[in-house]
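Weekly structure sync - notes
Attendees: PM, LS, DV (DV joined late)
Agenda: review two folding runs queued last week.

Item 1: First target. Sequence and structure tokens pasted below for the record.
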Amino acid sequence: MKYTKIPVAQTLVALCEAKGIHDIVISPGSRNAPLTIGFTENPTFSCYSIVDERCAAFFALGMAQQSQRPVALLCTSGSAVLNYYPAIAEAFYSDIPLVVLSADRPRYRIDIGDGQTIRQDNVFDRHILGSFNLRQDTDHASEQILSREKHKMPPFITERSLVEMQTSIQQKNEKDINAALNLAIEQQGPVHVNIPMEEPLYEVVDKPSVLPANIAHAPFQGRLVTEEIDRMAKLWNEAEKKMIVVGVHQPNAIDQAMINQLASDASLLVFTETTSNIHHEHFFPSIDKLIAPIEKHTEGEQNFKGLQPDLLLTFGGMVVSKKVKAFLRKFQPKEHWHVGPKKAYDTYFCLQKFVQASPNDFFKIFLPKIVTRRAGYRDHWSTVMQNRRIRHEKYLDDLPFTDFKAFEVILQHLPKNSNLQLSNSSTIRYMQLFDVDPTIRQYCNRGTSGIDGSISTAIGASLARDESTTLITGDLSFFYDSNALWNGHLRNDFRIIVINNGGGGIFRILPGNKDTLNFDTYFETQHQLTAKSIAEMYGFEYVSTSEGEELEKMLEDFFEPTIRPKVLEIFTPRKTNDKYLLEYFEYLKD
């Protein structure tokens, strides 16, 4: 096995290996060559080559989203590292562990006119758990360092002092690298390590020159105080109307026995979303289906007061539904608690308590202390929800082929025990209106809710699972991230379904002057593009349809095994999708 000659690169590779960070996503370059050599020469690591750094970062995010272990990103210097920023922001808000390794020029080469050189230190400062700027080795490329010193005012660095400096530099770098990797592991988020290295960059040795010390990370320990849990249980038992809202959440993170106990309490409403990945027949998975019709009802204010909880408990990440946010901000509970290992957002403007623990650990202690009611709050709203479901089915029975109808057909054919990745905007919102098979695990980049990176994330996620993965995406999101298909790591069972309505359909649902030149160009961004040529260029099988019956037939074998991944493009009517969706909520209210 070969090792890079540069000590700081040896140290990084060795400590990544020691801490079990084995997935490395590399974008080609020269300045990062020492680390590329170190990772690719070591059989411990699984290395992935992705040319486009923005795609590479979302690819890594998808892998880490599934494994919940840090994935390392490696790029060259200059603007390359800036292309990581969208995925880093997503990882920051979604609590996904990424280790960003950016190769850099030595400090004395910054801002002197050298190419591919920018101010990389602390470049992600506002959206990163920690920025670590390593020091340049002085026992490598000593001649260049001394040459640079000749142009400085005294005191000068000498050859002897360079040797003496290397010991302290190595100690400092080891300390910072340990801290960075441990932070990503412990707090489940992105960290940035910036590594200045001088040429020559491609030299290798047969044995490492450093043996860095691995400082073990501290496992997460929640802060559950018995007296405080007792006080919370007392308030819970006194409340007649309790509500739980679950945001983005990993599948199988809550013991089924606890889910069953929560579901047995008739004084509790549990609101979930498609990305909550928690299911029970007594839970309420389609929040907007329940709340949106109330807004339109003549007795909406009275109904909202009936729905208003005395006590709200939340856990999980971001919540998609704007309806539930607006409702709980206006009709606030007396108490709002959030349970989570890391942070609590005051989404509803009434947060009073943050319990820093995993929801599973919290419920293990909390649930034995609570009293389950057999009748009450939930009974009425279960009846309302059941009526909503009946109306939902009837509306879809008579619905012409639109985005809404396409989603109904797609969801009837998705393979069980598979993984579903969703793009943002219309896609994730349509999904909230359907009950999805509980064996299907669902994900979406809801940290920043951008349309960028959805394909890259899905491809990365597919490599971290044994089961097949399907991405459902809108047309703009697909074209935006089509560089993701320039990827040598695609699985044959990977599937993409593109809903092409000729523009940003979500803007037709929002208030505004539709069908004007200004709207068509700058909001909806109307277009005539199709995915066909892109799919074929990257070696995907491609099929398309604009009819419901034909879509049914295509989906019957779309998920069957093939030797190539597949794209299915569904064309829907641009000008009527919004009409039928808005009429849907009017129909439900009756």
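Item 2: Second target, run right after the first with the same settings.
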Amino acid sequence: MVQLIECVPNFSEGVDMALIAEITAEIESVDGVKLLDVDPGAATNRTVVTFVGPPEAVLDAAVLCVRKAAELIDMSKHHGEHPRFGATDVCPLVPISGITMEETAEYARRLAKRLGEEVGITVFCYENAALIEERRNLAVVRAGEYEGLEAKLADPRWKPDFGPAKFNPRSGATAVSARDFLVAYNVNLNSTSTRRANAIAYDVREKGRQERVGDPLTGPLAKDANGEPIWIPGALKCVKGIGWFIEEYGVAQISMNLTNISVTPVHVAFDECDKRARERGIRVTGSEVVGLIPLQAMLDAGRYFLRKQERSTGVSDAELIKIAVKSMGMDDLAPFVPEEKIIEYVLAAEQPKQLVDLSVRGLVELTASESVAPGGGSIAAAVGALGAALGTMVANLSSHRRGWDERWEEFSDWAEQGKTSQETLLRLVDADTEAFNGVMAAFRLPTGSDAEKAAQKAAAEAATRHAIEVPLRVMRESLGAMPLIRAMAEIGQETSISDAAVGALCVRTAVLGAGLNVRINSADLQDLAARAEYLKQADELEAEVQKLEDQVLQVARAKMESGS
């Protein structure tokens, strides 16, 4: 698997977009690096930039953009709502795929060293890249901000991890880390009060607020026996937050960093802010994601809000995203465009178009062309996906049928199973064509020498096995949708009985069609024992699907004949 890491530098400039364009041009000059997002904020006077690529290329791009920011941004003239202490304030690395957090942390330390030595930047390492335990928390590292940095650097305890210990009034300092995927998330209020926004932020953030003696608002700060402040924890783990007023929108916001969305997801943070705001007589009007958000976070949010409505969650990803956006008002201040805000969609835009991305007409016409692929295997997978989709449709319709309200969760669970089957089968549409292309590529390998002949033979055998195993999986996944279809024929709403029956016919076609691919591809397999095992599995799957199809059709015909 290719190693990918994300870099999310925050630059202390949010107004001059020509300046930001010069910085991002440095990123785009590095081969292999993809600039994903540029998110400026005028009130914060800060721009969050996101790019991704292989580790070495990302480090090269990070060095270039931090150097350019140091040339162009003068921190002695900077003002903004967000805490900051450098032209490039923070520069975290995030593991995306094929790489561990430990490996990412080592890359972060290498980046910090390069910034100190090659660019002359004062650098502190925090979170997973921290070299000193007391510096793990960014708030501690950045305490005093730019205005207190000169005095901080004069303290031997705050000798930087890399780079000069002397205060540079123009570039300030940069904090470098390795961290989990962080979602920068702001919740909008129908208030202009920074104090009240801060109060809500203190309610929800993990750190909470300092305890006071007597009056909770004006009393003196409480301290323990050692003279240390006493903190009252907030409601949400792995959440950092402050309140501020955004001039460009004329509203106060609760600005949060969700540092581990598996602990506190976006939708939980939104609902907790909404609850605490209402307790203070304030209403949440919406929210916004700064930068990018993982697809799973949006899907989880959509399911969460559908469950609150007692609606089926077995709907398309697009529908789940729409529900999430509307439920959290994520289009309150600006349109939420999934292709621009969801990291997987941004990356997918750079990939070649797949068969499943074609229109129905496009797939049909491509199949009918003189090209040998897509062929029967891909079409079998597509037909299986349609069969699963029909079962899912009946489950979704039944989940909100009038008079069946108490059964919504039962049908929602069936719909979730159907959606999983159809999504897997859709992926297999392209996988089958890719397997076929792999076989063709193996047979085209050179065979001039004995070594080349042996290598070609081994490659052909491996590719043939793969070309058998893909349609076998189509058979299993299609058959896996049959319990859903049978259940919908038996307990789903009666007006959709024919839809369930057509689903069963589609699944049978998919299993038998993929079985034919298993058989024709097995003929080229040299391992006779493996060939026999593949054919045995295909026989069993074919027998099972025909038995289940008969059961579904018997139920459907009986119900249609009885009129019930």
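Discussion on item 2: The first strand starts at residue 4 and ends at 7.
Action: LS to circulate a short write-up before next sync.
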